[in-house]
Amino acid sequence: MTRIRRLLLGAAATSLAWPALVLAQQTRSLKDPMRLGADQALMESGLAAALQRGFGRDTGVAVQLVGGLALPLLDTLERGEIDAVLANAPEAELKLDKQGLVHDRQRIADTALVLVGPAPKKKVPDPAGIAKLTDVAQALQQLREAALAAPGSVTFLTAGDGSGSHAAEQALWRAAKLAPAAPWYLKASADGTLAQQARRQGAYALIERGAWLAQAGAPLAVLVEGDARMAMPVHVMRSFRVNHPAGKLFTAWITGPKGRAVVAAHRGYRAPT
Known about the structure:
The chain has 273 residues and is of the alpha/beta class. It has helices spanning 3-12, 20-29, 40-45, 47-59, 70-78, 90-98, 136-149, 164-175, 194-201, 209-215, 246-255, 257-265; strands at residues 34-39, 63-68, 84-87, 102-118, 156-158, 185-187, 205-208, 220-224, 231-239. The protein is elongated.
């Protein structure tokens, strides 16, 4: 065991309120940072970086952020290639948890998808006429009907990747008993984020609230929100194959009052009740 890992094991066993000078020295000498995966939406919203900064400030322990897509990141965690992950794909997470392939899975934030699209103007509704609907399944059905009735008038942009947002979007289409397809249902390219591309194309999209707020703007607006099926919990969990000494310390911090305060202060997220 390296000297750095022995130091971190000691840190995990003590109070988070270590003297600042000792922790700063530890950070400067740290050569083995904890590798923390974070879903793309949490990177885009800035929440992952805010948690990284807050943890470093309060404990002096370095964390290396590894951005990516929730489903591939969970595979990476299972293989022990990263130490912990912040993910928003509860079905995939729960499957690994039940198999004992991840440790210490805990909810650290609540957010939701929002359905964005062309903003209504005065008395002119959005092309699909879904603004202010409260049932997301009804909104998706109406959106599809409008797209088929007037080809070219409605476009829906999907991330089409392994992100938590895409997994949640697919679950909503299943709830609506629909199988969306081209030409009105299109996959986003690698040229920018989903929110950026939807804005450029004036398209509809389901986007994680925090990521949307970080990139929101004309010509789009939030049209449908608040349906319980749009909820997206965010969990932290550690790998069962590796046991970085900072792992338990990080989990304790992020689920404690200081981590919860960082979450509560970030737009688009709430600390769990």
